[in-house]
Amino acid sequence: MSSAIHPCLLLCLLLLLLILPSWGDGWRCSYHTSCTYGGRHVLVRSSHDSRIQSTCASIASGDGGLPVMHRLSPCSPSAAGLGQSKQSVGDAFYRDTLRLHALFGDSTGAPLVALPGAFEYHVSVGYGTPAQKLTMGFDTATVGATFLRCKPCAAGDPCGKAFDPSHSSSLAQIPCGSQDCPFKACSGPTCTVAVTKKGAVELNATFVTDTLTAAPAIPVNDFRFACLEMGGARTTYSGSLSGVLDLSRESHSLASRVVLSPETVAFSYCLPWDPTSRGFLSFGAGRPERAGRGVTYATLRRNAARPSLYFVKLVAVRVGLFEIPVPPAPAIAGDALVEVHTTFTYLTPEVYAVLRDKFRRGMRQYVVAPSSGELDTCYDFTHLNTIDMPMISLRFEGGATLELGIEQMMYFKDRRNIFSVGCLAFAPVPAYAPVVAVIGSMAQSETEVVYDVLQGKLGLVHNRC
Question: Fewer CB within 10 Å: C terminus or N terminus of the chain?
Fold first, then answer.
């Protein structure tokens, strides 16, 4: 290893001694021990945790939005994270595989049937009049409907987290055969179908409308959703959630019901960095530039085969000072899918191979660690006091750039200890997924992702949660 000291390393050492927040033009440094300069991240080991541990009561959401928690958070209203261990690489890839198969493979894509418990992030909303507070997942890539677990429940099935239609004065049935009923096979007066398996009823699904309170004192009247009465499916359904909010481009999604103006956006979210932190989900908020926030926008694109999904065009991937151009998507394929419930970021095999090789070339001074699952570029930083690695950023059509911090580009065995074993958090797109890229939740974490549907743009505001 060379004995030369990188200038950014000297600056970080000064930060430790003088506790200065920044230094000079062209530098961007954290309050603790991390700096970026010349296309590289430089970190210096600290004797204290650089992130403040917050209690559940002390964490606030952004801009009055709904607090967002990871499914393993001890602060989640679902209590799904209590007593659970940290997610391993294998678990993350298994869940990614389920998710990508549901979106692009042979799965039906129905969230509560094909993907039990697959929603990584939770919010609390109110349904009905008076409002019944329920914990929901939220998804930008559902099959076009909000799903809600409803009473009555099957015998022996825990029912405490289900919506009770009989206690809501504002609930209304959707007639079978109406344009708001998506079930062509329904019969009888209501929009209801039964899903059976081997002659046994798995669930009854009924489309209804009711009042949804998705923000304090802001009700959405006559909101359409599917009420699911779980039968045999209760053995595979994760009981920690009451359902999933549809934020897709479908006409009946919650995103489509937000009243928009040139000064507002449909919705935005900031995903928490790890299960102990909290993000936010907001609807109809003002455009970030009106609040003086630095935002860059990518152009939202449509895919005829999957019109409900949000695609952007990935133009290039930058590693250090080297830029890798991303070839345009074939006519039959999609561009880059912005995905909430996929952990890692996936690139075409050709682009991924160049990214991996360029990154490895900039990491030759470090001890290589064994591959972890499908993450094949890993290093052992355990006994080091400094780390110096190439930066990675994603550039999109329209001018937006997603700059990845170390926590967004590396998956560490111990999420709160960067000086452990870390792996590059990218992988090749599976052969069954006809897309150029899938931008996963790790890469998006701590960045506010703004869905300006009215003007066809997706905005990125860094360091928002």
Answer: N
Residue type, 417: N
Specify the residue for token string 């007593």. 83
435 and 337 Cβ atoms separated by less than 8 Å = yes
User: Does this model's pTM top 0.90?
Assistant: no
What does the chain come to in residues?
465
Within 10 angstroms of residue 388's Cβ, the number of other Cβ atoms is: 19
Cis peptide before 130 (omega within 30 of 0): yes
Q: Are 247 and 123 in contact (CB under 8 A)?
A: no
φ/ψ (deg, to 5) at 121:
-125, 140
- Closest alpha carbon to 402 in 325, 276, 318: 318
Give the whole-angstrom CA distance, residue 196 versus residue 182.
18
End-to-end Cα, the chain, rounded Å: 37
Q: How far apart are CA 146 and CA 130, in angstroms?
A: 20
Contact by Cβ (8 Å): 408, 394:
no
By the 10 Å C-beta count (0-12 exposed, 13-18 middle, 19+ buried), 321 is classed as exposed
Write the pLDDT tens digit of every residue in 116-162.
455 889 999 999 999 999 999 999 987 678 989 998 876 666 677 89
Contact 45, 385 (CB under 8 A): yes
Widest distance between CA atoms in the chain: 79
Residue 360's CB is within 10 A of a number of other CB atoms, namely 17
User: Which residue, 309, 220, 288, 239, is CA-closest to 79?
Assistant: 239
**Alpha-carbon 209 to chain mean position:** 27
Is a pLDDT exceeding 90 seen at residue 251?
Answer: no
pLDDT value for 229: 84
DSSP 94-135: HHHHHHHHHHHSSS---HHHHSTT---EEEEEEETTTTEEEE
The tokens describing 429, both together, are 């797109």
